[in-house]
Amino acid sequence: MSKIDHYLHAGTRDNTRAAYQSAVRHYEIEWGGFLPATTENIAQYLVDHAEKLAVNTLRQRLAALARWHIDQGFPDPTKSPLVKKVLRGIQREHPAQEKQAKPFQLEQLGIVDRWLEQAINTADASGDRAAKLRHTRNRALLLLGFWRGFRGDELTRLQVEYIEVTPGQGMSFFLPHTKGDRQNRGVTFKAPALNQFCPVAAYVAWKQLAELESGPVFRSVNRWGQIGDQGLHMDSLIPLLRTIFKDASVIDSDNYSAHSLRRGFANWATGNGWDLKTLMEYVGWKSVQSAIRYVDAVDPFARYRIASGLPTAPLEAPKIENKLGSE
Questions:
Q1: CATH of segment(s) 106-267
Q2: Predicted TM-score of the model (pTM)
Q3: Per-position b or e across 55-84, b if 16+ CB within 10 A of its CB
């Protein structure tokens, strides 16, 4: 690989690159399309998947095919009026409500944290080092994910050498690459030390128990208590969290995802008086639109707002004169 190719490769996020490769593979191998494609080819591809794939997924596939054509020096067939009109028609005929991760509430965080603490103590008493390592790791993963409002990929990319702990106060994380960091300057996040559900104490406990000096923070632990060298894969995060929630008897554990921690924190913060600007700065959102997608209204049905405007005592029904009786 030449230096030019190396830097071109580095200029695209790993997740984006993987998604584009998957989309091109789907077009060529699974659907049987040819590249470079014509406008009619792309339109037919959309039509054939209109009832199978969500509109957002189709847009992602178009973006990947557009990138392939641009990178190879071909005209981009996805920007033609025909393709745009077909996509608008699909959106009109097959509207779909956007699905959002179910927010993980503070009450549930407490339930899972207490269960993990008990599991750690039980494993320690029985001499089960593998179980103690897994539960200690999971506790740090859960508390950091919630209180920092991290994305799933950010959690899995945390590096020990980029984390600094100030005892009794908090900790800072440096991420060389994040989704909103268009200039690739890196972003520093901070998390506080807390009296309960403390992310700092949970991280320090995991780091010391696993004897981590550098490399990925969150890694696999096998049944013999051996710790992997590589970080957890992004795709393993949702099954891992759902297993933790299920073991801790959280209701509807399969409805949560890695984004549930991010949404849960955002809802907790707004419910406790954080203004949107403060929340955006803390989490790292660059646009109001991005932040609002994660925040549920404190009173979603406007029940309390409407109820507060009603009189405290029930209104008396107006008296109706009995005209027949008075004649």
A1: 1.10.443.10
A2: 0.69
A3: beebebbbebbbbbbeeeeeebbbebeebe
